[in-house]
Amino acid sequence: MVEKRDQQFFDSFMLLVGIFVGIVAGILLFGDLIGEGDGAQAEEGAGQSAIVERIRPIGEVALMGDPTLAAAPSAAAAAPPVAVTSTLSGAELYDQLCALCHAAGIGGAPMLTDLAGWRPRIEQGPEVLRDHVISGYQGSAGVMPAKGGRTDLSDDEVLAAMQYMLDQVSP
Fold first, then answer.
1. Secondary structure of the chain in the HEC alphabet?
2. 137-139 and 142-144 strand pairing
3. CA distances from 41 to 29, 32, 105 (A)
4. pTM attached to this predicted model
5. Predicted confidence (pLDDT) at residue 10 exceeds the cutoff of 90
6. Which of 23, 70, 75, 93 is at 20 to 30 A from 8, Cα to Cα?
């Protein structure tokens, strides 16, 4: 008689397990049918584009002499200009803007007190220097963005900064 009760328990238990497995399988199939719509694909595409946007590089390396450098906008030109509320002296403008390149010689910029670096530029004459400072210059000697990248500055402010730098290298 014990064997019959064990068999009954086993049969009932297996029936419950079968019902449970059937319910779980039904839920999974029903979820797959509902989840396969266009919304799931759109969400997946949006998720992929968000991932691509998060891992894209923030910049590229450009070397002097690279032909693509001339076609690419400079970082200084791409940055929005900062509004100037008052006229800056040549020394103040040098400290705030020009020193970024001229203190370290970045982009071929002659360093502030390097007479040898300034001499070929000074020999071209004051009109050429003014034109390069105001309009910008890109050549074998280096790169000078127009008005140092601050197009919101007046010509007089930029020329005052140029004169300040020339006064520092005058013999």
1. CHHHHHHHHHHHHHHHHHHHHHHHHHHHHHHHHHHCCHHHHHHHHHHHHHHHHHHCCCCCCCCCCCHHHHHCCCHHHHCCCCCCCCCCCHHHHHHHHHHHHHCCCHHHCCCCCCHHHHHHHHHCCHHHHHHHHHHCEEECCEEECHHHHCCCCCHHHHHHHHHHHHHHHCC
2. antiparallel
3. 18, 13, 53
4. 0.48
5. yes
6. 23
Q: Which amino acid is at 20?
A: F
pLDDT in tens, 52-73: 888 888 877 777 777 766 565 5
The total number of residues shown for the chain amounts to 171
* CB burial of residue 152 (10 Å; 0-12, 13-18, 19+): exposed
CA distance 4 to 138: 98
- Tell me the C-alpha to C-alpha distance, in Å, between residue 112 and each of 11, 77, 115, 166: 95, 23, 8, 8
